[in-house]
Amino acid sequence: MEQTFSRRGFLKGAAAAALAVSAMGLTGCSTDDGAEPSTAVILGDYKVDVDVRKSTRRSDTRNNKTTGILLPVVYITNQTGSVMELKLTASVFKAAASDGTELKFDSALQPLTLVQKVPASVTPSFSTTDEEVFQKLSSGELSLKLSITLSGQTAVYTMNFGNLTQTVEKI
Fold first, then answer.
1. Which residue numbers in the chain have pLDDT < 70?
2. Can you tell me the distance from the alpha carbon of 171 to that of 168, in angstroms, rounded to the nearest whole number?
3. Is beta strand 65-78 parallel, antiparallel or unpaired with respect to 126-128?
4. How far apart are CA 169 and CA 171, in angstroms?
5. Cα(152)–Cα(164) distance, rounded to whole angstroms?
6. How remote is the C-alpha of 36 from its chain's centroid?
7. Which of 82, 110, 138, 155 could form a disulfide with 41 if both were Cys (CB 3.0 to 4.6 A apart)?
């Protein structure tokens, strides 16, 4: 038994199916319920955010010397209409403990290719040989102050690894 479809019948069916699929997305709960407030900021042509929950910290002991390493996760989005390449250097990322102790930027990051409006993640690495400062950062007794400078503008993220909170201030 052969069934045939007219072009008009096919288009009506396709439109009805598309409407049904799009309506399914409207019946669910909002994805913003219970979401953390965004700490995204605009720095010139870039939108920047960090995620303390995905950031990591670890210690490395070599030659009886312990180094504390902090790896914050940073998201950068190109806000322009073209593809851009961003060189990630110590002039972009700086970090210090909330007591003022500077952390060493020791990342050899590859340039980041940013496609329009698509966030890219990068994980700069910072270290300290001060074991007490590293322990206080890990426990949340001290916070990490992460400065990100792009397009001549700076945002300072305050990240607490103890209670997994973060705030941002654009300076």
1. 1-5, 7, 9-37
2. 10
3. antiparallel
4. 6
5. 29
6. 13
7. 155
Q: Give the C-alpha separation, 54 to 125, whole Å.
A: 14
Reference 72, options 87, 91, 94; nearest CA is 94
Q: DSSP letter string over 45-113?
A: TEEEEEEEEEEEEEEEEETTEEEEEEEEEEEEEE-SSS-EEE---TTTEEEEETTS-EEEE---PPPEE
**Which of 93, 88, 46 has its CA nearest to residue 72?**
93
What is the C-alpha separation between 154 and 166, in angstroms, rounded?
16
Q: What is the pLDDT of residue 22?
A: 54
Which amino acid would we find at residue 57?
Answer: R
* CA proximity to 68, closest of 133, 160, 134, 123: 134
pLDDT score of 31? 40
Nearest alpha-carbon partner for 104 in 135, 122, 130, 86: 130
C-alpha 28/C-alpha 43 separation (Å) is: 34
**Judging by beta carbons within 10 Å of its beta carbon (0-12, 13-18, 19+), is residue 63 exposed, middle or buried?**
exposed
- Tokens standing for 6? 């007219």
Taking the CA atoms of 8, 12, 15 and 21 in sequence, report the sign of the dihedral they define.
negative
